[in-house]
Specification:
Number of helices: 48
Low-confidence stretches: 351-378, 438-442, 751-757, 896-901, 967-971
Number of strands: 7
Protein name: DNA-binding response regulator, NarL/FixJ family, contains REC and HTH domains
Shape: flat
Largest sheet: 5 strands, parallel
GO cellular component, one term: cytoplasm
GO molecular function, one term: ATP binding
Strand order of the largest sheet: 2-3-4-1-5
Keywords: ATP-binding, DNA-binding, Nucleotide-binding
Radius of gyration: 35 Å
Distance between the termini: 44 Å
CATH superfamily of the domain at 5-181: P-loop containing nucleotide triphosphate hydrolases
Length: about 950
């Protein structure tokens, strides 16, 4: 029951209602394999666990008994058939029907008898009826069940669950019932299902292949997994590609198709072959292919009448994925190859329809070039892929077809995952058809094959299939090739490792690729080194980052990204402390980026903007990079652009926007197989949850980030996740815990570079997290650590243009200053707030200012400041911080003001009743007697009330309720 939360909830409500005397029914509609039977099993088990007084009746429709009147009712009611006594006038007709004799001429008495029998059975206790595969029941049984189900309701304690295939139109005999439609599993639920299904040592590539072939259908996933040998499951033997399947569900689907005429099955095979290569079965193409096979336009009628096939617009679709797989894989290999040849000819245009030719139509190898084969064809790449699917298993190498596939694939621009998947398949088939020597012989031939496998891997990666990409790269790496080909293969391998594996390994692979490519292809070598700098930055390796920048500068090529030299030299200068030299270079990079359109270059410029502290420019550049990646691809860049944009939103103090971008990025990163990018998004979400005061969500996202950030060497994500936990501690009033988390990250040593310290956190975040450490250490009473962290932050503030830095610096100095200087420093921080837009940071400044005023015995002045803090926190949804502001307001003698009703709204009705009684002066025992509960229950609820309101005494509770205008007595 993975991913079926909505379905389980609906079933639980139905069962709970029946046991409470509110009977009802649900019609569960689902494709085969989606778990309707499992849902009925779950319902029966839940019903029986709820109490021993219930009865469960179950039946399953059987196709062989569809023509037997009342066979379905007989199977369902057989355990209680004796209750439908022939001498009872209400159930006499039903009893005769259950005897499976001749069907009565008048069904009316049977229809009336079933509700009467259910009423009698319900008198002994709650009743649940579960009917699976109802589409196979005989019509009289379906009519009777529908009649009875529509009449279930209070006060009858009877629930009915009826499951039927969602293959076609709604069954009129079951019309009017509430419908619960089961959908295919999402990626996360399908993955969890597979994790239980596969052995612990299963190869991740197997899991990925199953996920993509299974389409979220649990039954199909089970059959697909069962079709693989133990050696294939563990990766000891390669997976077949595409992935075939056998199993009981597919055998059942194949048996259903076997009842159709042979000519209809041929049309079904053509339709399934069209879908097998990721295309769509449009009617015009299928009509041409069917004509080539000698099929008429009415061959689809038997399949449509049986609900196997349906027409949607100009396309034919199978009723479910199991039937589609059975229609294809249930046929012999030669018939599958013939279907692909016919589809290729149908797609190649009118010339292909002139008549049969040797080899079943024109193809590369019959004296025509690949370009000629594809001339005038509206679906060139798809036609060639069908040609390859027909030729590959039988004929081995076909250089001309291989060249044609590679040429068309290289001319096709991919902007979505589907197109990338098609191009990956085309280039893989091209590599296979190239043969061992590529048609050239020697290293040149194997180089062609390796290059095509590498290109296929790039597209597989962009399609969200990293393990398929790795398998293709592993094939390419076994071939003896020139350094230029090997270098490109290692470059792609390094990028995959950078996005989905250990970043230190990625850095080594990318550096190796650059060494191989440098003498022959400086442009691609620089590309490898730019990715290497990304890896070094992610690790936090400043020395490695600067070494990569130096190597990039050495590989100068004319007319290539003229400001790349400024980018490299400027970053190198800044990282070694020479701001005066590096700053102007980086500003030139930002100026040039105003007219840039390439997403990757915009993301690089966004990094530069954050380094120099121009947060507004970083936001603009990353927004443009995201728009460019969405508009023209590549699709794999979108989650990375969302990652950069979310980080820039965090720097600007706009946490709700950062959360929205990170949620989108996390979904896309998971779908595209970018685990490292997903870790960054989890870290951003942890920080957003910390601001909002959701401790559970913060801990969950921080844990998810750490699962990959630590093992994969993602220093930025690991540091941000720990910082988020520390900020969450601060939001809940735990400064000692926050300081303990932050001090190892930030450190308090002098550091070697501006903005760095001796801590273990990532160098790019140490200075940014320092103000949090100052605040936590100051509140924890560790003024030495606070002063050292402040000195570290002050050095960074002197060299950055970050508009938030002056706010944090003034605020931190105010925390450590004497009473005379504190007001002036807070005033300076508030002046700096005018240049930034962050309710959260403004609220924190006002909260700390208000605390200082209250400690200085100026409660009147503190109230106004704390009210401003409260409003700012409420505007940005920072709940735990708002609670702190309310607590400070109460400490000044003013209850939480207009925020108090909102706090009371967070109490449960029982907690609010207990709070009102206590506020009136009642003891716990008196409250227990008044509300008919135990004193222990009162004590438990009262502790939760104090925690929710941020108070410690009954006196404060009375003040809070009075401030909220809640003085009612609810005894």
């Amino acid at each position: 029951m993975h991913g079926a939360n909505t379905a389980r909830k609906a079933v639980a409500e139905l069962i709970g209602g029946a046991r409470a005397g509110r009977g009802g029914a649900l019609l569960v509609r689902a494709e085969p394999g989606l778990g309707a039977g499992a849902l009925l099993d779950h319902a029966a088990a839940s019903f029986e666990r709820a109490g021993p007084d219930g009865t469960v009746l179950r039946a399953r429709g059987v196709a062989a008994e569809t023509a037997v009147p009342y066979s379905g009712l007989h199977a369902l009611l057989r355990p209680v058939a004796g209750r439908a006594a022939p001498d009872d006038p209400r159930t006499a007709a039903l009893a005769r029907a259950l005897a499976l004799g001749a069907a009565p001429a008048d069904e009316g008495p049977v229809l009336a008898g079933l509700p009467a029998l259910l009423h009698d059975l319900a008198a002994e206790g709650p009743l649940l009826l579960c009917v699976d595969d109802a589409h196979h029941l005989d019509a009289p049984s379906r009519r009777a069940l529908g009649f009875a189900a529509r009449r279930l309701g209070p006060p009858l304690p009877v629930a009915m669950l009826v499951a039927a295939h969602r293959d076609g139109a709604e069954d009129p005999l079951l019309a009017g019932l509430p419908v619960l439609a089961l959908e295919p599993l999402g990626a996360a639920a399908a993955g969890a299902f597979l994790d239980e299904l596969l052995p612990a040592d299963a190869d991740p590539a197997v899991r990925e292949a199953l996920l993509h072939s299974g389409g979220g259908n649990p039954g199909l996933l089970t059959d697909l997994a069962a079709s693989l040998t133990p050696a294939q499951l563990t990766g000891a033997e390669p997976l077949p590609h595409p992935l075939p399947a056998t199993g009981p569900r597919l055998r059942s689907a194949a048996a259903e198709l076997a009842e159709l005429p042979e000519r209809t099955r041929t049309l079904l095979l053509l339709t399934a072959a069209a879908y097998e290569l990721g295309g769509t079965a449009d009617c015009s193409t299928l009509a041409r292919a069917a004509a080539l096979a000698g099929l008429g336009p009415d061959e689809a009628d038997p399949a449509r009448s049986r609900g196997v096939l349906r027409c949607e617009g100009d396309r034919l679709r199978f009723a479910n994925s199991l039937l589609r797989h059975a229609a294809y894989w249930g046929e012999p290999p030669e018939r599958r190859r013939t279907a692909h040849r016919l589809l290729a000819r149908a797609l190649e245009g009118p010339r292909a329809l002139e008549g049969p030719r040797a080899g079943d139509g024109p193809r590369p190898g019959d004296g025509r070039s690949g370009e000629d084969v594809n001339a005038g064809a509206p679906h060139g790449l798809l036609a060639l892929r069908h040609r390859a699917a027909a030729a590959l298993p039988q004929e081995g190498a076909d250089p001309e077809l291989a060249d044609a596939l590679a040429a068309v694939a290289s001319d096709t621009t991919a902007t979505d995952e589907h197109t990338h998947a098609e191009l990956a398949d085309a280039l893989w088939r091209s590599a296979e058809l190239t043969g061992a020597d590529g048609g050239f012989g020697g290293a040149q031939g194997t180089g062609v094959r390796a290059a095509r496998l590498t290109a296929a891997a790039e597209h597989a990666w962009s399609a969200g299939r990293p393990y398929r990409a790795l398998a293709l790269l592993d094939q390419a790496r076994t071939l003896p090739v020139h350094d230029t080909v090997r270098g490109r293969t290692e470059l792609v391998r390094g990028v995959l490792e950078l996005r989905n594996g250990v970043v230190t390994d990625a850095h080594e692979l990318l550096s190796y690729a650059a060494r191989l490519l440098g003498p022959y292809d400086p442009h691609t070598a620089r590309r490898a080194l730019l990715h290497a700098t990304e890896a070094a930055w992610a690790i936090g390796d400043i020395a490695g980052f600067r070494a990569d920048l130096a190597r990039i500068a050495e590989l100068r090529t004319p007319a290539e990204d003229p400001l790349l030299d400024d980018y490299c030299a400027g970053l190198d200068a800044v990282l070694c402390g020479d701001i005066d030299r590096g700053g102007p270079m980086l500003l030139r990079v930002l100026e040039h980026a105003a007219g840039e359109r390439q997403p990757w270059r915009l993301l690089r410029a966004g990094i530069v903007a954050l380094v120099v502290g121009d947060v507004a420019a970083a936001h603009d550049l990353n927004t443009r990079a995201l728009a460019g990646a969405r508009a023209c691809g590549p699709a794999a860049v979108v989650p990375q652009a969302l990652e950069h944009l979310a980080y820039s939103e965090l720097r600007a103090g706009r946490h709700s926007r950062a959360r929205a971008h990170a949620e989108d990025g996390l979904r896309r990163a998971r779908r595209s197989g970018q685990r490292n990018c997903a870790a960054h998004h989890h870290a951003v979400l942890a920080m957003a949850a910390a601001v909002e005061g959701d401790a559970a969500a913060c801990a969950g996202h921080a844990r998810a980030a750490g699962e990959d950030a630590g093992p994969h060497g993602l220093g930025v994500a690991a540091t941000l996740a720990q910082w988020a936990l520390a900020r969450c501690d601060m939001g809940h009033g735990r400064p000692h815990e926050a300081a303990a988390r932050l001090e190892p990250l930030v450190g308090t040593g002098p550091g070697e570079l501006p903005g760095t310290a001796s801590g273990r956190g990532h160098f790019a975040l140490q200075a940014l997290a320092a103000p949090c450490l100052v605040e936590a250490a100051a509140q924890a009473g560790d003024r030495r650590t606070a002063r050292d962290a402040l000195a570290h932050f002050a050095r960074w503030t002197a060299v950055t243009a970050d508009p938030m830095a002056p706010v944090h610096l003034a605020r931190c100095r105010a925390l450590l200053a004497g009473p005379e200087e504190t007001p002036e420093l807070f005033a300076k921080a508030l002046e700096a707030h005018a240049r930034i837009d962050s309710d959260f940071e403004y609220g924190r400044t006002q909260l700390l200012h208000g605390k200082a005023l209250r400690r200085g015995r100026r409660p009147g002045a503190a109230r106004g400041v704390l009210r401003d803090a409260l409003l700012a926190f409420e505007r940005c949804g920072a709940r735990s911080w708002a609670d702190q502001a309310r607590a400070e307001l109460r400490a000044t003698g003013e209850a939480a003001g207009q925020g108090a009703p909102r706090v009371l709204g967070r109490l449960t009705p029982q907690q609010l009743r207990i709070a009102r009684c206590v506020a009136e002066g009642a003891t716990n025992r008196e409250v227990a007697l008044r509300l008919s509960v135990s004193p222990r229950t009162v004590d438990h609820h009262l502790r939760n009330v104090f925690a929710a309101l941020g108070i410690r005494s009954r006196v404060e509770l009375t003040r809070v309720l009075a401030a909220a205008g809640d003085g009612r007595h609810d005894g």
